[in-house]
Amino acid sequence: MLENTVQDSETREVDYTDVSLTQNTRASYPIEFIPNAKIPCVGGHPQNIVFLTCDAFGVLPPVSRLTPEQAMYHFISGYTAKVAGTEVGVTEPEATFSACFGAPFLVLHPARYAELLAEKMRQYSSNAWLVNTGWSGGAYGTGERMSLAYTRAIIDAIHDGTLFHATTTMDPIFGLEVPTHCPNVPSEILIPKNTWQDKTAFDATSQKLAKLFVDNFKTFETGASEAIIGAGPKLAAEAQA
Question: Which of 45, 109, 157, 208: disulfide with 124, CB 3.0–4.6 Å?
């Protein structure tokens, strides 16, 4: 099956040079066509669950360990950024929220899916992590995109158990457990505020993002438990206005 491609109406021959419908072409084929594929394509229960986000504000840590309640909160929030090239008209990163990272496809209240996630986490002792591949040292336009090499090192450290045993510090606004050491990643990168020259600007930007989280989550408060709501960021008094 080929999707989003242009075909000759008579011969049904695909024209791969025609980008009038899309820049990308999708294809599907039997799994048996892939050498060394695992058949049946069923694995065990994961030890680690990784949520990927791209924080264009540059304030979320590159990696955080989540409690089940925080996993539910961030799963429901589905925060990331649209970046140039992903959608027509997007020329610079824009913050966006999509419940359970797939809002258009949800049938039930997002909290129901989050509760199922937490239930499975507890049942199989799975860990949840929030990995940020966005900006470091400042927001978009000031900071730089997180190094892919650092992100790979973080993922490796999650899977080999290093970060599970790492010392952590608590993010004062988002309440996240942030590892203070990760092999092959500079320690200052792990604590976002350390990478900003303007610490006051960092605090203000953190509050700005926190308020976006809180305002977005108001849509889901009916149907979400107090434990889930309480796992969100804490706003300073002036940011609540």
Answer: 45
